Request: fold
Amino acid sequence: MKTKKHQDCLKSAESNKSKTINSIFNSGTSELNRLCAAEGALVFHESHGLELEKVSSLGSDNTNLNVGNNHSVFSLFNELIPRLIRGNCYCHVLHNSVKHGNNHLLFDVEAAILKIYSQFCRSSVRSQELGKYFEFVDQEQIVMKYI
Reply:
């Protein structure tokens, strides 16, 4: 797909080699822009002498690039590199896991935390044992206020 906008995108990627690969990917959600982002990434790799055969994983931290099964940046790269593994940001994976997993818990997390807190706050012996545990794991014990 070679339109004027597409060619301008490629020229921009070639002329601005000092830009990071992330700045190339910050484009709109239209299919043309996603194709430009994929083409721009390819131009970036080729212009910097990076061999696509050595790429094992591709991660994109942008909704505009992750959307679509046929024209996402990953699917377009996967056509060139069939063994490519989809990489994701571990923080986003953890966040999504907790967000969606919390809906399926069989107990109330807030109630469990309050019970654990009350277990230690009502007994000075238990509080001292907890303090010893924090010393053992070399962490500072911080009492957080519940509002």
Remarks:
- The mean pLDDT is 73.
- The chain has two domains: 4-95, 107-147.
- The beta strands are 57-59, 85-87.
- The two ends are 57 Å apart (CA to CA).
